[in-house]
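Handoff note, outgoing to incoming analyst
You'll be picking up this chain. Sequence as last confirmed:
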Amino acid sequence: MKSSALVLLAFRLALPGYHYEFPRDHYNHPEFQTEWWYYTGNLHTADGRRFGFELTFFRQGVSRSQQRSVWDVQDVWMAHLALSDIDGKQFLHAERFNRAGAGLAGADEKQARVWNGNWSATPQHLQAVADRFQFSLQIHPEKPPVIHGENGVSQKSAGMGHASHYISFTRIGATGAIRLDNKDYHVDGLTWMDHEFFTRQLEANQTGWDWFSLQLEDGSDLMLFRLRRKDGAADPYSAGTYVDKQGRGRHLSGHEFEVTPGRMWHKYPVEWTINVPSLHLNAAVTTPLDDQEVTSSRVAAYWEGAITVTGSQRGVGYLEMTGYASPLQRELL
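Most recent structure output, in case you need it:
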């Protein structure tokens, strides 16, 4: 069996100066070992019933040896699906694994879609089906894509290549239908999409991260990630991006903001305060549904859920917390 070091040699590192090109960079980058496409959103019915959702596609490269058959496994494709029924106080989620062979999963520019079985995302449409729920959403970006970080990379730890290429659509309008327990709900709301590709990111002394996406009522958006060290302190490579109403992004280094945990649910802090002095932002982040933990048969459990923002600005968003329930697994196999 190849060592992890030898496997890494088969893949490209995320380095400064990367030249982004769209729509190409919205799809697959097999030269990098790890890639993901994250869709999260807050939706509501006309009478105010609120839902959150997550639809996430992952690709993990495992080999770049010569492929002799369409069934040879070069990549593992995983997908996670979740629905937060906030008024119903329930959280439902599902996962699936596939290989690319015979078109079972992929991310293809010619087809303009990312998919795993019958879960799929295109520039205009999201759809997914699980045992008790399904949704179909028409989507339309309200701002252009934003590139996070500096000089084309989002640096996560010291050293060349300990970084990702990181792109987001921070404000996507969504409208469509959710079917839950054989009942249909027409919904509208906002979606956020993250796309990252990389080969190396975290170091051994970094145990996880807290990631926030905020869509504020004034039309601006904010992404922050707080990397955590083994001693519990925030890592200096924590960072973020502020996106103004017109879609212009501004990089925020870790010393420009504070995120402070508050009330706990099990191992997860589900209330936070966020302070960004340069934006005159002092916000309280809470969740309307504590239990939004995603458990998996193959990767460490994580918390991913809908949040509400109050304080100097109001809005909605999503919060992801990793590394609390168990150590992060850096591969899908």
